[in-house]
C-alpha cells in the first residue's frame, strides 16, 4: 500500500500536469477562446461560431455575419482577443477540484487521489465512535449531577 506522502506527491504531479493542459487549452488561439466569438445553433450542423467584433460586423456589410469556426481563421485574425487569463483558468480549475461531481467527471484520477487523501486525514470509524460515546457519556453525567446549570 502507498504511503500518504507518495500519494500526495503523485497528486501534486498530476494536478500540475492537468492545470498545464487546461491552460494550454483555454489560452490557445482558437475560435472558442475568442472574446468576440458567438456560438449559435445551426440546423443540421450543430453549432457554428460567428465573429461579433464591431469592426468585422461593419466590414461584413449586407451579409451582417462573419463565420469564425476554424482554428486557421482564428490564428490569422488580428482582432483576436482571448477571453481567458491565466488567473481565471487557475480559479476555474480550483473550483472544479472543490466540486466532487465535476472533478469526478473531468479529472477522475485526481478525484480518486483527493478522496484517498481526505480519508487518510479522517479519524478511523472506531475513534469516531469512541468520541461520540464519550460525548454522550459526558452529557448524561452532567444531566445526572446537575452540572449543566
Name some characteristics of this structure.
149 residues, mainly alpha, two-stranded antiparallel sheet
How is the topology of this model organized?
Layout: H1 4-26, E1 37-42, E2 46-51, H2 54-60, H3 71-76, H4 86-98, H5 100-106, H6 108-121, H7 125-144
Antiparallel strand pairs: 1-2
Helix pairs in contact: 1-4, 1-6, 5-6
What does this structure look like?
There is one protein chain. With 149 residues, this protein is mainly alpha-helical. It has one domain (4-144). Helix content is 60%, strand content 8%. The protein has helices at residues 4-26, 54-60, 71-76, 86-98, 100-106, 108-121, 125-144; strands at residues 37-42, 46-51. A two-stranded antiparallel ribbon has the order 1-2. A hairpin with a 3-residue loop joins strand 1 (37-42) and strand 2 (46-51). Helix 1 crosses helix 4, helix 1 (4-26) runs antiparallel to helix 6 (108-121) and helix 5 crosses helix 6. It is elongated and about 90 Å long. The protein starts with a helix and ends in a 5-residue tail after the last helix. The mean pLDDT is 85.
Strand content: 5-15%
Q: Which sheet architecture does the biggest sheet show? A: 2 strands, antiparallel
Give the neighbour order of strands across the main sheet: 1-2
Q: How far is the first residue's CA from the last residue's CA?
A: 51 Å
Count of distinct strands: 2
Q: What is the C-alpha radius of gyration, as a whole number of Å?
A: 27 Å
Order of helices and strands: HEEHHHHHH
Helix content: 55-70%
- Described by the principal axes of the CA atoms, the overall outline is elongated
Mean pLDDT: 85
Tally of individual domains: 1
Total number of helical segments? 7
Uncertain parts: none
Question: What structural category do the secondary elements indicate?
Answer: mainly alpha
Amino acid at each position: 500500500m502507498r504511503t500518504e506522502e507518495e500519494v500526495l506527491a503523485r497528486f501534486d504531479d498530476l494536478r500540475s500536469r492537468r492545470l498545464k493542459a487546461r491552460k494550454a487549452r483555454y489560452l490557445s488561439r482558437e475560435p472558442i477562446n475568442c472574446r468576440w466569438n458567438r456560438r449559435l445553433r445551426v440546423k443540421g450542423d450543430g453549432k457554428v461560431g460567428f465573429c461579433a467584433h464591431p469592426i468585422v460586423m461593419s466590414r461584413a456589410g449586407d451579409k451582417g455575419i462573419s463565420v469564425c469556426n476554424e482554428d486557421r481563421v482564428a490564428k490569422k485574425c488580428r482582432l483576436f482577443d482571448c477571453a481567458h487569463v491565466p488567473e481565471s483558468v487557475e480559479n476555474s480549475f480550483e473550483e472544479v477540484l472543490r466540486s466532487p461531481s465535476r472533478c469526478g467527471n473531468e479529472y477522475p484520477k485526481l478525484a480518486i487521489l483527493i478522496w484517498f487523501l481526505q480519508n487518510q486525514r479522517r479519524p478511523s470509524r472506531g475513534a469516531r465512535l469512541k468520541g461520540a460515546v464519550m460525548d454522550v457519556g459526558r452529557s448524561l453525567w452532567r444531566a445526572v449531577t446537575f452540572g449543566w446549570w
